[in-house]
């Protein structure tokens, strides 16, 4: 029961967000802690009127507690297994786990699945864990056991990719490593298209699963177009553009390794196809002089803002990169533009893109407003979970 944990009492009036089931307790809301607590420990949170509010993992920083339970149920083995089982059942209801044409998806999406600090991506039998809180890292053995019990024969291996995502001030020495089993293959299928995934050294967990439905939309608009895929990473959008019948596809990324993987993924699906070419280059430099060369451009940059302190610079970055695209895309062209920065709201992102259109002097229509797919669910009490924003724009 909660009394066995260190008790944290909030200041008067700071309990309202938790009563609305928001899973974060900010350090400034804490009035007093009764006992010694270490990063990653479970703590019980109470209001100033001694009302029980929730149990969560304590951490040093602005977000001091990530709530894992709003009831007094003790977070032990069956607790974690039940959470993972609900996440797995939800994915199965979406068709994942049984769909031979798509065997890559997000299995656990942190707050969206009631497991703050934990990401699990599924790659053709291999579950790649990425912990963003010490609390989740400390129970990884329990998580691995629960994954084995819930997924059964669907699970072949579990890999931990948390070395670069855990708080740097935490007194632990994490390393990326295989925790259990043997990976079946690092080749996955997404809507029947093949991709090699590098979960050991690649970005995130190895593949940007959250763009799956948006890649499919690029495929629908690519026919007979000259396509530019900026910040292409491993070429997901490029492969879909080729599948959609693009006339030419150019992929650009600053990482030579990413470009090598892009070429490998294109070759997997379209052997010896001469319509694709890849370039290792800085995005801003590449966009300086591409005037009217392309009529479908994809801008999917890495997060320009990871903290609120960098928000102004990030918005300027989005404005600059979109201005260059607007200035040079062909008349009648289509621009797919994205932000994956959680601290950049939909409205602020749209303002930056619209400012870019005005600077370029182009007439622009909104065709689609995009977000993350259903296997990256947003907890309705935690709107911050809606991190991916996208616009599809028709440019005249």
Average the pLDDT over all residues and give the rounded result.
93
Q: Indicate the radius of gyration in whole angstroms.
A: 22 Å
Number of helices: 10
The largest sheet has its strands arranged as 16-15-14-17-18-20-19
Order of helices and strands: EHEEEEEHEEEHHEEEEHEHEHEHEHEHEE
Class of secondary structure makeup: alpha/beta
- Count of folded domains: 3
- Per CATH, the class of the largest domain reads Alpha Beta
User: Which fold name fills CATH's third level, the topology of the largest domain?
Assistant: Rossmann fold
Largest sheet: 7 strands, mixed
Distance between the termini: 63 Å
Helix content: 25-40%
List the helices and strands and how they pair.
Layout: E1 6-10, H1 16-19, E2 24-26, E3 30-34, E4 42-46, E5 52-58, E6 63-69, H2 77-93, E7 104-109, E8 118-123, E9 126-131, H3 134-138, H4 140-151, E10 157-160, E11 177-181, E12 187-190, E13 193-196, H5 212-221, E14 226-230, H6 236-243, E15 248-253, H7 256-269, E16 276-280, H8 283-286, E17 296-299, H9 311-328, E18 333-339, H10 346-360, E19 364-370, E20 389-395
Helix pairs in contact: 2-4, 5-6, 9-10
């Amino acid at each position: 029961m909660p009394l066995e944990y260190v008790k944290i009492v909030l200041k008067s009036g700071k309990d309202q967000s938790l009563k609305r089931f928001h899973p974060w307790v900010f350090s400034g809301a804490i009035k007093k802690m009764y006992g010694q607590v270490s990063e990653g420990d479970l703590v019980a949170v109470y209001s100033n009127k001694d009302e029980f509010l929730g149990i969560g993992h304590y951490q040093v920083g602005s977000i001091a507690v990530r709530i894992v339970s709003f009831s007094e149920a003790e977070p032990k083995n069956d607790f974690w297994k039940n959470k993972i089982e609900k996440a797995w059942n939800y994915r199965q209801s979406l068709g994942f786990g049984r769909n031979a044409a798509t065997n890559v998806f997000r299995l656990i999406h942190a707050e969206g699945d009631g497991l703050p600090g934990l990401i699990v991506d599924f790659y053709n039998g291999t579950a790649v864990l990425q912990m963003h809180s010490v609390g989740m890292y400390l129970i990884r053995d329990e998580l691995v056991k629960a994954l084995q019990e819930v997924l059964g024969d669907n699970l072949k291996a579990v890999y931990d990719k948390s070395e670069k995502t855990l708080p740097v001030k935490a007194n632990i020495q994490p390393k990326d490593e295989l925790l259990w089993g043997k990976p079946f293959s690092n080749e996955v299928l997404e809507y029947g298209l093949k991709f090699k995934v590098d979960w050991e050294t690649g970005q995130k967990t190895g593949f940007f699963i959250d763009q799956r439905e948006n890649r499919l939309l690029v495929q629908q608009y690519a026919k007979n177009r000259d396509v530019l895929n900026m910040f292409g990473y491993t070429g997901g959008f490029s492969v879909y553009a080729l599948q959609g019948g693009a006339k030419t596809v150019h992929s650009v990324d600053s990482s030579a390794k990413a470009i090598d993987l892009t070429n490998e993924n294109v070759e997997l699906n379209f052997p010896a196809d001469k319509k694709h070419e890849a370039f290792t280059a800085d995005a801003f430099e590449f966009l300086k002089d591409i005037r009217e060369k392309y009529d479908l451009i994809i801008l999917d940059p890495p997060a320009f803002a990871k903290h609120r302190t960098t928000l102004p610079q990030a918005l300027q970055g989005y404005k600059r990169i979109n201005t260059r695209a607007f200035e040079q895309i062909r008349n009648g062209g289509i621009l797919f533009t994205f932000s994956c920065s959680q601290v950049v709201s939909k409205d602020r992102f749209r303002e930056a893109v619209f400012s870019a259109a005005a600077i370029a002097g182009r007439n622009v229509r909104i065709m689609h407003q995009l977000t993350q797919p259903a296997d990256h669910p947003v907890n309705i009490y935690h709107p911050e979970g809606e991190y991916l924003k996208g616009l599809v724009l028709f440019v005249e």
